[in-house]
Amino acid sequence: MSNPINGRALDGFEEYYYRKLHSWIPELYWTNDLDNGTLETLVRAMSERLAEMRREIDRVWTASSIELADDWAVKYLGDLVGAETLSAQNSRANRTVAANFMNYQRRKTTRYLLDMLITDIVGTEGYVREIERWLARPPHELDMAYLRSAPLSGGPVGGLPELTGPRVDDAALPAFDEFARLPDFGPREGRAASYDYATIHFNLFANESWRVDMATPFWLDETRLTLDPSGRATQLFHSATFDHRAGSWPVGPEEFPVPMRCARFNDAQFEISSDALDTIASPGLTSALTPWIGVAFRTRQAFQRILADQLSASLYANFRESLLRECQVPGCAKARQLEADVRLDIGPFADTRQLDPYEIVAANLSRWMPGTQWPEDAALLIDVASGCVQLAEAPDDDAAPPEVFHPLFHHLGLVHRVGAGTFPRESDIDLGPTFNDANDEVPFTPPGAGLQPFRDNRRYLWEWPANRRFNVTGELRLEAADRTRPYVISRTDDPERDFTIVGTGGQDNHLVIDGLWLGLLGDAPVETAVGGAHEPAPPAHARLVLDGHFETVTLRHVSLDPGGEQARLDPGTARAIPAVALEIEGSVRLLRIERSITGPIVETRTDPSLLNAGEIRISDSIVQSNDPDRPAISTELARLHLVNSTVLGACHANLAFATNTLFNGPLYITNRQQSCLRFSAVAGYEGVAGIDPSTLPRRFECVEYRRTIPPASLRSTRFGDPDFAALSDLADSGLLHGGENRTEIGVGNSRFWHQRRNDLARVVSTFLPVGQNAQIYEETGGRT
């Protein structure tokens, strides 16, 4: 166990050896040492060195165990069993492969092993498809797939495709392609030649899916809202529930971390069973439907058609809803998604389900649903592609029992674990107690010093003094509990939307913000009339100012909202979300930004006599300016250090040192002699209209573009998208492999994604069946 602040071991060896040496030295020498403490210092130094030697001796003994061995010993343990050494960056896989290599040999050439290698080496979700099972062929009884139907399209495996089912579009996903193809005996390179008898597909899912419990929704009006607390449209994701160890085949995309889709969500299947009829307990209904027991219906429309044909008008009217509730197949796609992916309800209590599955319908709400087109029986519509929700009627809090909307949970996808999120952060803050209503904001006022914990995913309202200046009087920590993402907002009617945190003079002040999503809003929405639904909202701005004196300010896993747009009620009216700029107006000796997402960072230089920021260190982070007239980073005197980061916008600095950093905007450096860029990507902006050419410092092994970085290099530059600031497949090899040790440049550097993929290819080649060829695909949920 080690100290989380300084990383030192908490084994007590230093104190043990200090007391032992202390006891060996006569007390006279300790008495004479009271004046200057030289002996004390010497003995402490000797104790620390003895403690280090003791730990090194202990590590030699633990090196014989693969679970406890240091990284340097893993290679030698792997050599003993013949395991291949993988890339140095993928230390987890090196250890896992060495530990399991004998087990791999016993399961060699089996599909179970190939699925296992994805988890052990890449550490992500994925599964293996043997392409020969999906090739077109004449049916015969010795075929394992004889008379077997594909799980998504419903067509025969290896036969003509079935194109009329409700989930046929899911069968077009690269990872779940069910359409029989003719064998391709050409070169086995690329997707165009990947279907032959000797091909095995390894489908890797690059996104991670994380569950968000009871987050405060953003109400646009009385019946329309977004699950995102800021009002953004955000894609919902499936949870990752597939387990290859069960030995079963996946039944569809809902078992993997891919984006949800409305057609997939509405895929409810029905089957009339004796248990369902016994539960309803109507003799007339049982008599009419007994001949249909065991008959399955792939759609709700087909089920209701049979009910209307077989039942009298009174039986159909009285028991239709009961039959929809009781006869839904528990293992159908809709039931699985309501159980594992997203759960919403309207009722008095959050722990008691009130809405039946047929009352929750997925729909396209980009233009919202008019009352004349409202689906039958639906109490709630959800657009899983945007996280928007529309209710049939406004909940009545005064009803008996009260009607409360409960956003019990949903899942969001991420490529990079940066910013605030519900992923593990090793926080010591305990989760808060359960609560019933997540719709209301929670007001709070932090102390001037000490700890302000946030224990859930609700929206918190920071209540500032009237002058919007908050005084820090020592060390203040604003920290979220592990696996939570609280949204902390501040509101004002001032159009400047500025809030100031002041470090009290005459003492050492420290500010730590960990795990929070911070937004600065106006009391009224920032609305602008636009020309149409596709015209973006003009950017709005807010300021979080650091004034006074701070020794250190640390932002860790923080999302300082870089701005955006809320979901629109009217296509012609856009609601902007202000971009929060972090402005350094006082004196900050050290500003640390770690694994965070921020808006612009500005050194104001309002008082020329102050050195506003002595040093700014940004690592594994994204800094964005969505306004072309405002730089993403602007410093005059501070030393700027960037490591494994992505800057979306212009960067102005006096003295800068960057490693593995992607500058997606012009770069202007004043002190070009002492500044240095290593393994970074920069653009010269030569001949670009309206933008001055970059002023670049010394460079070492950098990827340089004469004009701009190709726009297709990034999947998305919109905050809130799951692939925000992630490099795309269209990025050139310089961005994908131009970082230090052949890693990718930018915020994705520490993922070592390409190293993990290459390691998988190397190990798989050892354990493939004879004559088989492996092809590795990265699945993001898109269509072929």
Quick recap:
This protein is an alpha/beta fold and 784 residues long.
Can you summarize the main beta sheet?
17 strands, parallel
CA radius of gyration: 30 Å
Strand content: 25-35%
Return residue spans where pLDDT drops below 50 for at least 5 consecutive residues.
none
What's the mean pLDDT score?
89
Explain this structure to me?
- The protein has 14 helices and 44 strands.
- The strands form nine sheets. It has a 17-stranded parallel sheet that branches. Strands 4-5-11-10-9 form a five-stranded mixed sheet.
- The protein has 784 residues and is of the alpha/beta class.
- The mean pLDDT is 89.
List keywords for this structure.
single chain; 784 residues; alpha/beta; 17-stranded parallel beta sheet; five-stranded mixed beta sheet; 20% helix
Helix/strand layout:
Elements: H1 13-24, H2 27-32, H3 38-62, H4 71-81, H5 91-106, H6 111-122, E1 125-130, E2 199-205, E3 208-213, E4 218-219, E5 224-226, H7 262-265, E6 270-271, H8 274-280, H9 283-289, E7 296-297, H10 300-310, H11 313-326, H12 333-340, E8 343-347, E9 360-362, E10 380-383, E11 388-391, E12 404-414, E13 442-444, E14 450-454, E15 459-462, E16 469-472, E17 475-480, E18 487-492, E19 498-503, E20 510-514, E21 517-522, E22 526-529, E23 541-556, E24 559-560, E25 564-565, E26 573-577, E27 579-584, E28 587-594, E29 597-598, E30 601-603, E31 613-619, E32 622-624, E33 633-634, E34 639-643, E35 646-648, E36 651-653, E37 655-659, E38 662-664, E39 667-669, E40 676-678, E41 681-683, E42 698-700, E43 703-705, H13 733-737, H14 753-767, E44 773-779
Parallel strand pairs: 2-44, 9-10, 13-15, 14-17, 15-18, 16-19, 17-20, 18-21, 19-23, 20-23, 21-24, 23-27, 23-28, 27-30, 28-31, 29-32, 30-33, 31-34, 32-35, 33-36, 34-37, 35-38, 36-39, 37-40, 40-42, 41-43
Antiparallel strand pairs: 1-2, 3-12, 4-5, 5-11, 6-7, 8-12, 10-11, 22-26, 25-26
Helix pairs in contact: 1-3, 4-5, 5-6, 6-14, 8-11, 10-11
